[in-house]
Every structure is written in C-alpha cells, then in structure tokens.
Design goal:
alpha+beta; Jelly Rolls; 6-stranded antiparallel sheet; 12 strands
Length: about 270
C-alpha cells in the first residue's frame, strides 16, 4: 500500500472518484501517469489472494511462451473475485477522465514475473498488437498487487511517445526492436516508476515502455485493465480476444464482451 512517512494510507483519488487536474494534464502530456492508492489495503489483499489462486490454477495457460512472464487474458470472465477488479467502476471512470472520451473494456490481463526471473520485457508499444480501427488513444491501467520497486520489475516509460503512431508491432523480447522501428526514440528520456501495492500507472497504448527484470524472491503480481475508445471497430487482424467472436471488418467492438459498467446510469 502507499503510505506517507507516518504510515498513513495515501491516495490520489478524491472522494468523488476523480484524480486531480494536474495528473490528467501530466497523463496527456507524457502519455503515462502514476496514481497512488487506487486500491485500499483491504482490497489489495483480496485481489492479491485471488490473483495468486487463479495463477496457481491456470499458470500453464500463459500466452507468453518464452518465460519472461506469465500472461493470462480475460480473467474477468472466469474468476468472480478478479472480475470485481477488472470491472471496477472507479478505475473505469479515472481512465475516462484521463482519456477525455467514453471507453469500453478491451480486455484484462494478469502479468506475473516469477521470483528471480532475471528477464526484462523490452521496450514496445501496445496498440500495434491490437485489431482496432477508427479509435482514439487507448490506455491501460497497470495495477500493482504487491510492492513493485525497480528490482521487482516496475515499468520504465518513454515520455511523449503516445503521439508516435504507425509503427509495426515490436518484439518485446528484443531490446533493440522498438529503436530499430524508430531510431529517434533511443535518445528520449526514460522514466522509471516504482509502485506500492494498490498504486496504478495509466499509460497510452502508444506510449513506449518496458518492464525491468524481477531479481527478488517475491513474484511481481500485476493486473492490467485495457480500455479502448467506445467507437473502436474491428480491423480484421488476428487476436486471441476477437478470433472466437465471428466479427466482420468494421464491426464495433461493443456488447457483453467489451463492457462499460462505469458509464453514467449503468
């Protein structure tokens, strides 16, 4: 949990469920922002315990086959506890406040770096992997369920790269691949953002980022909610989330598979 020097819980989220204007401005300028204390200590414990149990039961289903991390997608559809985190109204409303337009859930994912994995997730953008069209900037909420200092695998961002669109998908196992796609990005400042349990970073789907290795004896547990423009349509590209849905190019990504429970009146 995030605490001050007196050990008191600290949150950037107001009683109205909104974050300060300066955090919104920072997100829109840099393409990422840290929001402290999104989850209160009791919720951190509940969701951490749920994540550990789900991982133990489903670790072999990980989409990541090279051992850098465990990646489990759309856990909200299979686990009632983690469904509460994915569809959390406050997280969705903060995401909309930062984006400035209506959003839907694209998908969630559990991202776990096992103890002493000693492997980085190299610099990449998220959006080039997704079968989206007609959309404004998507964004992800990366929620720390344990303390994530640099040595446990927190993220490093390339500020301002949310405006660098049109790049091919990058190989997140290859440390040079993003910079091969756009050599100018190599010389940008890099900002590493440690998180306490219950903190969250929001980052644009185009913001270049990487995650450091986990060199500690504790697993790095993160739950990620990915939000997309409510008007997003299907591009026709293959993706594990859309492949089973029988979509045609141009179909809107909406309905029960892509909910919006935080909408006014929902």
């Amino acid at each position: 949990m995030t605490t001050d020097t007196a050990g008191q819980f600290v949150s950037d989220v107001g009683a109205d469920g909104r974050v300060p204007d300066e955090l919104v401005a920072a997100y829109r300028e840099h393409g990422f922002v840290r929001v402290r204390g999104v989850l209160e200590p009791g919720l951190v414990e509940r969701f951490r315990t749920g994540a550990e149990a789900f991982l133990e039961a489903h670790r072999t289903e990980s989409l990541e086959k090279q051992g850098v991390f465990s990646q489990l997608v759309n856990v909200w559809q299979r686990d009632q506890t983690l469904r509460g985190l994915t569809l959390d109204l406050r997280l969705g409303r903060i995401a909309e406040q930062l984006a400035g337009f209506p959003l839907r859930l694209w998908h969630d994912q559990m991202l776990v770096k096992e103890p002493h994995n000693n492997a980085a997730t190299e610099f990449h953008q998220d959006r080039p992997y997704w079968p989206h069209a007609g959309d404004r900037l998507p964004l992800s909420a990366w929620i720390a369920l344990v303390d994530v200092p640099p040595e446990r695998g927190c993220m490093t961002f390339l500020p301002g790269t949310q405006h660098r669109v049109g790049l091919r998908p990058q190989d997140l196992h290859h440390e040079e691949d993003l910079f091969a796609a756009d050599p100018s990005l190599r010389w940008l400042p890099r900002v590493t953002v440690p998180l306490r349990a219950g903190d969250c970073t929001f980052h644009s789907g185009y913001t270049g980022h990487m995650a450091l290795p986990n060199r500690t004896g504790q697993a790095r547990l993160a739950h990620v909610n990915i939000y997309m423009d409510e008007a997003t349509t299907y591009s026709g590209s293959e993706h594990i989330v859309t492949d089973p849905l029988g979509l045609a190019v141009g179909d809107r990504l909406d309905g029960d598979a892509f909910p919006r429970p935080w909408a006014s009146g929902a």
